[in-house]
Design goal:
mainly alpha
Length: 243
């Protein structure tokens, strides 16, 4: 009798937990996809035409987040949220890789870097001229909520991290490509995407880019560490039950 009651309680908790995961993924997917759509309707003053919104890491990050949470929704229905599935479907493998390699480190990079520079001098990243056309809620979705939701995801869903060399290589390719991209934009428009780059001399820009890359790689390691610490006991227990 006691065993049956305990089993029913675990089943009820699991249903509630899966519902919580689904609502998190659904809320995030809706807001980030809507933010991307809304950005396309804006005409920003003094904006560089070349590259459109794709010149901003914030916009690329929003695309990554939107893609991740849509993939997570698909995985909720046709994949699996088991901690250690015996044969993980392709959708689950891609979901795990996307968060580990891009979604977590890039989201924290964008959020922390933006608000740090904003606190120092907002004109370096978000000039006051944008206030009349760029709503406050959109700013927080793109620079605050990306951090809040990805941290919640870290604590509510386990993911199998790739080997460190593969994960960091994927992240390095993305960040390296973006650095090349903003230099291409500078070459054709003669304007830096971010005002902060205009006030830096060449040696300072090199140090700035190196610091951003190093910081992003450190965030990857942070995500790996959090994942291991938060889910270590559950993974071990799951592995014992599966034997």
């Amino acid at each position: 009798m006691a065993r049956s009651k305990s089993k029913n309680e675990r089943s009820t908790f699991l249903v509630f937990y899966r519902l919580l995961q689904f609502l998190l993924h659904l809320t995030a997917a809706i807001q980030f996809n809507y933010a991307i759509y809304y950005l396309h309707t804006l005409e920003l003053p003094n904006s560089i035409p070349f590259g459109g919104q794709f010149k901003f890491l914030t916009f690329l990050c929003a695309i990554i987040q939107a893609l991740y949470y849509v993939i997570s929704l698909v995985n909720d229905f046709v994949g699996t949220n088991e901690l250690v599935p015996r044969r993980a479907p392709a959708i689950r493998k891609f979901k795990d890789w996307l968060l580990s390699t891009l979604a977590f480190p890039v989201a924290l990079n964008v959020g922390i870097t933006f608000w740090t520079l904003y606190a120092i001098d907002r004109e370096l990243v978000f000039p006051k001229v944008l206030d009349p056309v760029f709503p406050s809620w959109l700013n927080h979705v793109l620079h605050t909520n990306i951090v809040v939701f990805i941290v919640l995801e870290m604590f509510t869903s386990y993911r199998a991290y790739p080997t460190r060399s593969k994960g960091l290589t994927g992240l390095a390719i993305f960040m390296g490509s973006y650095l090349v991209w903003i230099h291409i934009i500078k070459h054709y428009s003669n304007v830096w995407v971010y005002p902060v780059l205009e006030v830096l001399q060449l040696p300072q820009r090199i140090l700035f880019f190196a610091a951003v890359l190093g910081f992003t790689f450190a965030l990857y390691l942070l995500g790996e560490f959090i994942n291991n610490v938060v889910w270590a006991k559950e993974v071990k227990l799951s592995l014992r039950k599966s034997k």
